[in-house]
Amino acid sequence: AHVVPRSMLQGAGGDNDQDGSSGMSYMNAYGTGGMMPIVMKKRFRTKFSNEQKEKMCAFAEKVGWR
């Protein structure tokens, strides 16, 4: 009988205890990375003061963007 090593059963990335270089190619090739989902942070939205908004609008008028 043929015995498959446990690392082969987990996918092309091998054991996660290794240096991770082979696992990275697996993650990039398939996008999901197997059992490690990628969590993206929501982008922080810049808040402008009224004074900043007025200056930006004045500049936009001056250069012809409005």
UniProtKB/TrEMBL annotation:
InterPro entries found in the cross-reference section: Homeodomain-like_sf (IPR009057)
SUPFAM superfamilies (UniProt xref): Homeodomain-like
Sequence segments annotated as region (Disordered): 1-23
Record's protein name: ZF-HD dimerization-type domain-containing protein
Species assigned in the record: Pinus radiata
